[in-house]
TrEMBL record:
It is found in: Cytoplasm; Nucleus. GO terms for molecular function: telomerase RNA binding; telomeric DNA binding. Residues 193-475 form the DNA/RNA-binding domain. This is PIN domain-containing protein. Keywords: Cytoplasm, Nucleus. One of its GO terms (biological process) is nuclear-transcribed mRNA catabolic process, nonsense-mediated decay. It holds the Pfam family EST1_DNA_bind. InterPro entries: DNA/RNA-bd_Est1-type, Est1-like_N, Est1/Ebs1-like, PIN_dom, TPR-like_helical_dom_sf. SUPFAM superfamilies: TPR-like (SSF48452). Its main location: cytoplasm. It comes from Basidiobolus meristosporus CBS 931.73.
Amino acid sequence: MSSKEKSNLVAKQLLSDILRYEDDLKTSELQTRQAKTRETAVAAAVEAAHIRSNLKDLYEELILSDLKLAKENDIEERLWHTIFHGPIKMLRGQLSKMQSKDSTAIQRSRVELSRLFELGTGFYHTLLNSVKLQSDINLDTFGFDLLKLKETKFPKYKEIGAACIQRCLTYLGDLSRYQEDSTEKEIKDWSLARDFYAQAVRVYPDSGRPHGQLALLATYSGNHIEAIYWNCLSLVTKYPSSIARSNLQTLYATVTKATDNTSFDGFERFTTLFVKLQARLLFSNSSEEPIQDLETQVTDYLEKLLLNGLGEDAYKQSVRIITICIATLWDLFGRLKDSSGTSQNLQAAKLAQFQTLSLILRLQITYFQSPVFTKIRWSEMDSPEWKLNEFQSAILSTLTIWTSFCLSNFEYITQLYQSSKSDPDLKHVQTNVEVFIHMYIDLLNLLPTSCDRKIESTEYLSEDVMLLGIQPLRKLHKELTIGPLLQMRHQSPVQKTQAQLNRIRKLAFKLHESDVFDLVQYNDAEMKYIIVNEGVKLQNKERLMKAMAQQLLIDQVNSLEQDLARMPAPKSAAQKNTVLRQIILDVGVFLDHLPKIKRWISTRKCVIIVPLEVIESLDDLKKGTGSLNARAREVIRFLEGKFKVADQFIRPQRPSEQLSDWSEAQSYFLEEDEEEFEGDEEDEEFYGPRTIDHVPLEYRPLLGCYFYHKNIAAKISTLIPTLLIVEDVELLSYAQWFDIQSMDVNQFVEWLGQQ
């Protein structure tokens, strides 16, 4: 008989002994319950404890001698319920029913409960270490190695060993949770249990059981988003928890029921709306409210939170929110592949997947446009002090996770987009896809290395570790290498961000290579990606400045002019020094002298008019990675802040504040003095004949703005005639052709100091 045959024989004998002892334990426990005297009950209980101790040893011996046989006979579960969970559950039940006067019985039960906690903790630590050594498993890296299973002909016994270790860690988490719950603390500390469950997830990510335990801990603190997050992750593991779906239904019902008759604000209100929408998407819950309306409520309320500075929780939970949606999309996709479903259910799942995709994109767009994210100075990444704050990092993580999903499932995303283009009822999905892509490409073109199209990045990111092995990202995770993971802890903030951006950039190359996403092209001359679809309605930050200038501030301008008109006329020389002067600045002044502009506003001695031409120039200049592009973005942020609060000392030009036709400039034209300019052939050769038609087109909007406000100043006694402040020497030369008071910045600073 070979050694293997002997081992098999020993294992089978152990299994036979276990079955016999389990029968003996049932008999002994029955005798304990039916005992008519205390002595009989005590004797039966002692016998049961002895049998249970022997069973524990037999269970452990079988697990260590033949893991496969133990797995086939569910020995680990039987061990847990028979030796630990059953007795603990009984004692906890007894304690909950005992009166305070039964102090002796209470103390005796607590001592026994503590003994079980200590015994179980020691037992599972020992079993875990034994299986780890026997199966040669590295707890830190096994979860990553597992993803290479098919490619490397991974030993099956190692996977069985890892699953056993995961259950040991889960049981240790349960023991810690029960022990903490048995204390009389007002505020419970679940951190130890959470650590055990989290390690269980990492060591064997294919099983969704510990995810469910983490969801349970989240319900203790009332964190509904986190609880939904962990249950959703459990749902999309290779072996989902059998109760994950029912847990989600219970959670959704609990949240919506608790808030039906209660008014919530802030993030709680967002959570309610989000959960209602998720219930509709995942379970096709009936509702009279159109699902698109509910989606709009969710994203509009999120935008409101972020814009009003109330979105701290919305930022912190952004990764979980996006991951929940991705898990929902994946689950719906899986249901569509299940031919056993009814046609009605399949149709509901099909529509729900489009709505889920639309929701993900709108959430991403909303986070893109948040004040926190738009303030990131990408051009300064090379600085040693540069880093993202907590909220900015969270938003970048959501984008990293979403692009990772798209890379793993590019064909699926392509199919959804293609279908949305051909179905009028899904037009909103197509629009959201294209708006997201536009904003995504704009972000890439702001990055320092956005011109690098061929990004070969195979390193693990913190987001990969967090979501290791889930089915939606499994294809991508299989392609990653373990090496860089070991260096992740030593990365600087910039290195971590750069690694995320490397992943994010890879999607652009996919989009560019796709025939379906034909709106993305690569401009070799400019070395950047561009959007070529002119039909896309841009719903992003690039149009914010112009929208403010042309729409939101018209009433404010009217109010300003009325206020200026009501100002009393100057009565003395001293008072004349406080009269306001309107000044018009060219884009060069804004780019090179922003600190001076801020001081001018603070003096309240002038009203700065921001020409629309300047706003458009800044909008064009903000795209890029150079210092000029960075300054343009800084100016834009400054102007946004001023326009939002309606600062009366700086305002944008209204669309109507210009000449109706350039020919009107003739009335301001100064005829050339023949004696003064006689023989100045060099000037004429450079500037052309001295007529209004020879003023370059790019200068006319700015000069037209000046002429308009010169007229306004003439009608309002409290305004000194308008002054043109420019840095463009050529523009200054053309200004001399007209009745224009102009000077450069240094001259204006000197003038202002004399006022």
